[in-house]
Amino acid sequence: MVFSKVFKLFNINKLLVVQARGTGKCNSNNKDSKSKNNNEKVIALNEIHRFIRECFEKLGVKKENAKLMADGLVAADYRGIYSHGLSRLEPYIKDITNKVCDPNACPKIMMETVSTAAVNGNNGLGTVIGAFCMDLAIKKASETGIAIVVTNGSNHFGINMFYTERAAEKGFIGMAFTNTSPVMVPAGAKDVCLGTNPISIAAPGEGNDRMVMDIATTAVSFGKIQTYNRNKKQIPLGWGLDEHGKETTDPELVVKSRKLMPLGGNVSYKGTGFALMVECLSGLLADANYGPNIRQWGQKTDKPANLGHGFIAIDPQKFPAGFQKRLSDLLNYIRKMQPVDPNQPVMVPGDLERKIMEKVNKQGGITYTPTHMSMVEKISKELGVKGVKFK
Asked: Which of 4, 112, 200, 354 could bridge to 117 as Cys pair (CB 3.0-4.6 Å)?
């Protein structure tokens, strides 16, 4: 699938800029598109996409898979989700070079009905498998109204909303679930057992309006902890624990312990319950690895991840007419509510990302930190891939 088509829903035929601060938010106070920090580098969208794509191709990944992987990583940075963008390139490369995944494997449908399917990802690239499964769910839902597709034999697949937006752009309600390496300490426990197990839903409203939610079932994603650690910033209390199970604001201690708190804290079963729900709709239903049986991603191992994903597509046209209108009516009602802070209007899930995308579309390139640039230079030399040009 070509880059421009995959990114049709993002309106990315332009270049863009994002302030990569490690918080997942755009710095709206900085009006200088080149950034006041001279150590940051502005890179054209197509240029960073080219670099990522060529890195995968250099490793023997076929062109269509390499493009899709680049699409997913750039999509994350475009939305301000820096924990799942360019910063994920290195661990993906390690998975391929260490031969713990097969970058050219093709997903295979193992069993199906008119509205369900179970897929074997054959230890391929997660983004490739995820796109295949969501497209299959959409196809089935267009005929039956609702469909669910699950897969085993997969690997890390990036941001969930990459797949749910894929459905919403075609007029469907999309949902995506995945289990992950165990980093959650369930409520009342001392040790980890479940993953961040994110949930995403995207629903189309009128025109280009939509509701898009993508959340971890832990207090925060592990990738965000890593981003804070790279940028040497303290994390809020309530996000993670040290090796002794004590809450900490030091992200380095959480990176070492790999212990995250569940959504809602360790006195609530909300996060634990949501994580188990995701397991039911991904790992358990797909006969993939689950819970403590999943390997720790990023650590040297020859053990396949065998992650499980789940994808649901719903066709609103098979239900009472006017869903998109009703959704936009509700979203706009919430947006127009009186805010606590007059300078911070009320937003619904997906508005923040759209605000970032609107800003970056006007600014002309993605701004990467020195940490990103060091990684790009290192990978460029190791793989013999042409480096990136700065604006």
From this structure: 112
